[in-house]
Amino acid sequence: MFQVAGIKEYKLESLRKLLPSVLDQIDVNTEYLIYNTLFLKDSFKDIKHVFNRYGELVGAAENGSLTQELVTEVKELCARTEVNYLIEEGPTAIQDCLDGLREILKAVTSLRRLMDNNGEKKEMLDLNEALANLTVALKREWKRTCQLVMELDTEVLPISCVRSDLYYVLGTTLLNYALAMAKLSEVDPEQKALLMIKTQQKQDHAEILVKCSVVSGGAGTLNEFLNALWQEDLGALSWVINIQHDGDLDLRSEDPNTCMTIIRLPVGQ
Q1: In a domain, 131, yes or no
Q2: Contact status, residue 159 vs residue 265, Cβ threshold 8 Å
Q3: Residue 240, Cβ neighbours under 10 Å: how many?
Q4: Residue 156 DSSP code
Q5: In Å, what is the CA distance from 165 to each residue of 2, 6, 46, 66, 159?
Q6: Strongest mean pLDDT among 59-68, 228-237, 245-254
Q7: Total structural domains in the chain?
Q8: Within a domain: residue 108?
Q9: d(Cα 80, Cα 204) in Å, to the nearest integer?
Q10: Rounded distance between C-alpha atoms, residue 77 and residue 158, angstroms
């Protein structure tokens, strides 16, 4: 029987498992940010130099001292610095920086939510936002073996929950699927899977579906690997959902290659 006092230990263990993926995601996006920022820095330096020479050209034209030599120099400078390329790629680099910052923010948010220590205090939580944050934070784990499909219902209502505990449940659930697929890939590197994360608003509750289906070859032992992982976590996860939040946690296996977890949580409480 799961002991309530042990929830902190389970959360700490979950955090230990999740932390490398979160830090890796932050590290990868930071590298992209540095690369794009350096590109923008060098680009603006080159563009400034070109504009300074254009200023000289315009000044010479205005005072009647324009020479073909100056025109040729400016044209050659533009060719060397590839001004059109810099102007076209600049907005893309800026957008990449913004995307990277958003992913870092999501990863940090997931980490902070897992580390929150607000006891049993309940807060309103946007399930779609929580799942989006966690999938970014865990990207290192699933991207190698799974194709991710997300179908998030925009009509899903916020739920009242102990935020860090629910992040623990959602994060552990997603991580278990990713780890099971990683183990399966070790047995058969050709194995690939479709990982679906879906939310749906029902009449009086919100439903989260996490489903993993092996889509190519292999021995079809996904269920075996998942069951081994669930054995470690199921008591704590069930307590958080069933007892703490008056919800329902349902594990299903349609066949050895297709497994799903359904979490139902009451809304507006």
Answers
A1: yes
A2: yes
A3: 24
A4: P
A5: 15, 12, 51, 72, 13
A6: 245-254
A7: 1
A8: no
A9: 65
A10: 57
